[in-house]
């Protein structure tokens, strides 16, 4: 039974191949689809082509690193949350913050580095939120459209072409029939092939008509992308305006210090100005010696963080924690503690309060 079925399928494949070859060399007629169907098919091909191009362009802009794109796609396929990944802006800001701490928050340059580094980290977090919103609201729906609707249409169009080849092969066999029995058999095959073709053409036509209606959903995805991008630029602008004000204030205070002189008219260095009781109190509140070496400093959490392992600690935005940079650990992480809880956290999620 299996051999007969296999032989029948091989015969059908050979018949289609012969029909296709004869059509190409012009010795056989080809059943043409109506103009409306061809128009719908062209629109569907155009929708697939431009959706693929827009998807590639959006991914290149939002996620420039090809490795990160592959990683995100894998996590999306297995429906698992991808690990938190700092952006380049956040790494840039983290380097500035670490440099500012090394130079000293009491110096003008060190203080400026801390402020700019914190702003760059906030910009990085705003950027990550924008990318997440754009991926969920624009990229994922377009990818789903290609992987579901367009794949189904491609499959049904391929099946329609097979039915069309079978139909034209039956027409050719009927024209070549010489006996009455041969004509009767060919006519029966033709009727069946025509019915199969008509049914498949109707199925494919309905799917093609659905592509046009999907543009309403694509318009909604486009609006979501624009809204996410507008919010991103608005938040970024606010961060930079605030940073400019802080740097301007810092410059003014630096100029005041630079203009100070002793009673004899000698300029006073910033490092030689005695600390007031208020500044000493602030330093005592902001820094305390760690029990395991190094200094524990206060910091404000700028973004929620979910611990990824047992040695890490979760953070809540706007809470105040103590942190300490210890040797031997990753430069991206610092030790933090809250009450009796201690664990590693990304330094980019903290904004120092000791400056």
Automatic annotation (TrEMBL):
GO biological process: membrane organization
Occurrences of domain SH3 (ranges): 294-355
Keywords assigned: SH3 domain
GO cellular component: cytoplasm; membrane
Domain of life: Eukaryota
Entry-linked SMART domains: BAR (SM00721), SH3 (SM00326)
Stretch forming the signal peptide: none
InterPro entries: AH/BAR_dom_sf, BAR_dom, Endophilin_SH3RF, SH3-like_dom_sf, SH3_domain
BAR domain sequence ranges: 22-256
Homology family: Belongs to the endophilin family.
Name this protein carries in UniProt: Endophilin-B1
Biological source species: Cherax quadricarinatus (Australian red claw crayfish)
């Amino acid at each position: 039974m299996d051999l007969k079925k296999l032989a029948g399928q091989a015969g059908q494949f050979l018949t289609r191949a012969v029909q296709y070859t004869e059509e190409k060399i012009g010795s056989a007629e080809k059943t043409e689809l109506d103009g409306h169907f061809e128009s719908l098919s062209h629109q569907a091909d155009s929708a697939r082509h431009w959706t693929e191009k827009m998807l590639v362009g959006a991914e290149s802009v939002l996620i420039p690193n090809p490795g990160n794109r592959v990683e995100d796609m894998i996590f999306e396929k297995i429906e698992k949350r991808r690990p938190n990944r700092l952006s380049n802006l956040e790494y840039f800001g983290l380097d500035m913050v670490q440099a500012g701490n090394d130079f000293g928050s009491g110096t003008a340059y060190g203080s400026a580095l801390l402020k700019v580094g914190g702003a760059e980290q906030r910009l990085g977090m705003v950027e990550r939120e924008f990318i997440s919103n754009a991926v969920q609201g624009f990229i994922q729906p377009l990818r789903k459209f290609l992987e579901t609707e367009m794949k189904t249409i491609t499959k049904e169009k391929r099946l329609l072409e097979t039915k069309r080849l079978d139909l034209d092969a039956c027409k050719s066999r009927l024209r070549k029939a010489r006996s009455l029995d041969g004509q009767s058999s060919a006519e029966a095959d033709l009727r069946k092939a025509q019915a199969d073709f008509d049914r498949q053409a109707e199925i494919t036509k309905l799917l093609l008509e659905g592509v046009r209606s999907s543009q309403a959903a694509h318009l909604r995805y486009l609006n979501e992308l624009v809204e996410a991008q507008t919010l991103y630029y608005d938040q970024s602008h606010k961060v930079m305006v605030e940073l400019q004000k802080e740097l301007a204030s810092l410059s003014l205070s630096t100029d005041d210090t630079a203009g100070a002189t002793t009673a004899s008219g000698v300029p006073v260095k910033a490092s030689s100005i005695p600390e007031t009781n208020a500044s000493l109190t602030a330093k005592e509140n902001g820094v305390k010696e760690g029990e395991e070496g190094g200094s524990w400093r206060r910091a404000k959490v700028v973004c929620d963080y979910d611990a990824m392992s047992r040695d890490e600690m979760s953070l809540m935005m706007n809470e105040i924690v103590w942190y300490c940079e210890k040797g031997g650990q990753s430069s991206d992480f610092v030790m933090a503690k809250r009450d009796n809880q201690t664990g590693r956290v990304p330094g980019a999620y903290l904004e120092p309060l000791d400056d």
